[in-house]
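Morning!

As promised:
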Amino acid sequence: MIKSSPKFRRESAAQRKETLILATLALIAQDGVRGATVRAIANRAEVSQGLIRHHFSSKEDLITAAYAHHMSHMTNLTTAPALTTGISAKARLEAFVATGLVPPVVDPGMVSLWASFLNKLRVDAKMREIHEQTYHDFRDRLEALIADALCEAGIATEPRALRRLAIACNAVIDGLWIEGGALPGAFEPGELPEIGLKSVGAIIGLELEYVGGWT
Amino acid sequence: MIKSSPKFRRESAAQRKETLILATLALIAQDGVRGATVRAIANRAEVSQGLIRHHFSSKEDLITAAYAHHMSHMTNLTTAPALTTGISAKARLEAFVATGLVPPVVDPGMVSLWASFLNKLRVDAKMREIHEQTYHDFRDRLEALIADALCEAGIATEPRALRRLAIACNAVIDGLWIEGGALPGAFEPGELPEIGLKSVGAIIGLELEYVGGWT
DNA sequence: TTCCTAATTATACGGTTGCATAATTACGGA
DNA sequence: TCCGTAATTATGCAACCGTATAATTAGGAA
């Protein structure tokens, strides 16, 4: 008897879950939440639709997992360059701001994805929890960078004031990131990071500069 | 023959359209785009579902109209106080910034609504057009206020630099507005406008202050 | 009053959705 | 080698979606 090629491959739960999550994110980024149907996701991940319910208790569960995955991914993408050792605190802050304002972080798909999730915050408590945690995580990293940069410059700052600086800087970055993604082509290349650096610098009282190399 | 009470009332096209638009916005704010089905909208507006297709060529058409309505509403809400005559340019700018960062502009429903529409920008060209126009309209008003305030303070600014200041200030306001709406309770009352004024002030190089009276 | 017309309702249809259930099948351990 | 079991597929269903069409009805014009 000739052994025919297997009709499917078994994979670990973790791998399958990630595959499904990535397919979900790709679909939402492309067509909005509306496009992420169970059948479309299964099709994109090249599995049957029944498999989704085998790994996730409901479609809502998958969406939530995709949200968490995406948010931590974006945070890591932005944070990574700021972890470089051997450079000044000011340089790390500059890298952090600039990285968050150029592709691939600034991207229509990313913004669309983020917006799709944002309007679920009202309804879903689990989503709200994830958002809150991600937001604070991101802001805390930013606050630490600001604190280091200010300390390095010999500027003392109270915790309360520091928190507000971080909130404000986070807001500029977010705002620029959104418009950059929502209106691609409305800004010249390199304009967004330049504006971001100048603004963040003005807010915290340091002169931050645009360093080339960010494509 | 006893005349029974009429089963429905005829109204002008404009009135009906607005009723339907408001019902749509209320539903989207409450349950997200997913909740704004034709039947739900008709139910909320207390009309039959067929009426929607009588006034709008499609559901998509209604959604688009609702988006335009909502955006101009928000812009007007924020802009109104800045039109006050007889006060300094700086005071008008302060009013503009502060108004946009307190209720009813800062509100979970408003943010949810805005986010719901945002993720349609990728797909729908008409939506993108409305977004672009609204964004530029808002930013232009902000830019004019900044120009006046700087001029009043005797600070000369090039058009190119002015544009970037407006982009940056717009971003701070947007970012703060979003988080204020997405995470109600995460900020103390009055904290958002205070941070917003300080940040905008730092960016453009003026000292803006929080004036009480904004509840 | 009578009639005409546009606003409104009533009803139905094809397609899609998320989910449940049962039948297959890969693949590691005995 | 064989077998158990969990991963995967196949199939079906009830509910809901947007839309089309025809039947009502309000309310002004003549």
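Residues 125-152 of chain B form the longest helix (28 residues).

Hope this helps with the figure draft.
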